[in-house]
Amino acid sequence: MTEIYGITGMPLAGKTTVARMMKKKGFEVLDMGDVVRKERDKRDIPAADTGEFVNNQREEKGMDAIAQLSVPYLEQKAESGKVIITGMRGWNEKERFEEELGEQIEIIAVWTSREERRKRREKRQRKEDVEGDGFHERDLREIENGVGKLMALSDHLIKNDELTMEELREKVDEIKD
């Protein structure tokens, strides 16, 4: 049996940071955002068009389209017995992964205020942050894609607003204990 957690949350909530902490506990990490970037780059689509790429995939293949792209990567990582999936956006993605792997996935929702996420965006300066959709537009797209439902139905919630790294680590440890 594979131990699988899916991490969800709005952009810049701290999903990747939580995943890094879980990685230190022996989990393999599948970052769905990395899958999107790899698949986008394979198709020579500019970073500024990442949101459009994702939306087109979902229009063509359904709301679990990014999960479909991610399944081969997940199957490889699942061989380790412990996996964290970061960047899950919708319930359909959870269902797709569970169906493909035959395993249950517990969802960890990471919540951070809009104000704190804006500050993080200014510091991070990832290519799609600078060239892509505006902050508000990206939030709306994430909500339309189902992140709110997945957060509402999550198994665990981490409020990551103004926490120190040590405080966040303690919250992550509570999930595993």
Structure description:
This protein has one domain (3-176): P-loop containing nucleotide triphosphate hydrolases (Rossmann fold, 3-Layer(aba) Sandwich). Helix 2 packs across helix 4 and helix 4 (65-78) crosses helix 5 (91-101). The two termini are 18 Å apart. The chain has helices at 15-23, 32-42, 50-61, 65-78, 91-101, 114-124, 127-131, 135-144, 147-152, 165-176; strands at residues 3-9, 28-31, 82-88, 105-111, 156-159. It is an alpha/beta fold and 177 residues long. It is globular, with a radius of gyration of 15 Å. A 5-stranded parallel β-sheet has the order 2-3-1-4-5, with helices on both faces.
Structure keywords:
177 residues, alpha/beta, Rossmann fold, 10 helices, globular, EC 2.7.1.24
Task: Give me a quick take on this structure.
This protein has 177 residues and is α/β, with parallel strands linked by helices. It has helices spanning 15-23, 32-42, 50-61, 65-78, 91-101, 114-124, 127-131, 135-144, 147-152, 165-176, and strands at 3-9, 28-31, 82-88, 105-111, 156-159.
